[in-house]
Specification:
about 65% helix
Length: about 200
Amino acid sequence: MALRSGSGRDCNAPLHMIKEYLNKMKGSTKSPPAIGVSEVLWSWIGAFLGISAVALVSYKLLEGTGLTMIIGSFGASAVLIYGAIKSPLAQPRNLIGGHVLSAVVGVASYQMFNSQVWLAAPLAVATAIAVMHSTKTLHPPGGATALIAVIGGESVHKLGYLYAILPAGAGAVIMLLVALLVNNIPKTRRYPEFWL
């Protein structure tokens, strides 16, 4: 028999709520099936060529200028635009918009709160997510692009809002061009799913 409090409510109610909450963490679907060797190979080729193109521009054309074209968040973008090409998060609007808008948000956060990086960093990421949601440009690596604008060091901070164009925008465009070329070579792949 369940104990009742003075108000007549079941004392087990909080325990039941906690159990329901924890049960949500079990998941609701099975793991997706494994993909074929061809898909793995084309994802590898795309990622290799995409990051190579950005790195070549950065290390060969921009060497000695104090500018960079390659940022860590491009690694995560490569996973999406070469390895998960059907995902809404991997589409051109999301790739370009997510990086550029998040870069602007990150720079603004750093400029407003550069003496309190502990505040600027989470503000940049959280606001970038909100902006990407609001503009239908959600691209998870954009959160890292915003964070890099805050914690990226003096070379990134010197760029100011140029960071949104170079490296964020230009690097994303280079990776997009490679994605368009490589992802459409095999008959089994098609990219993009949509543009706008």
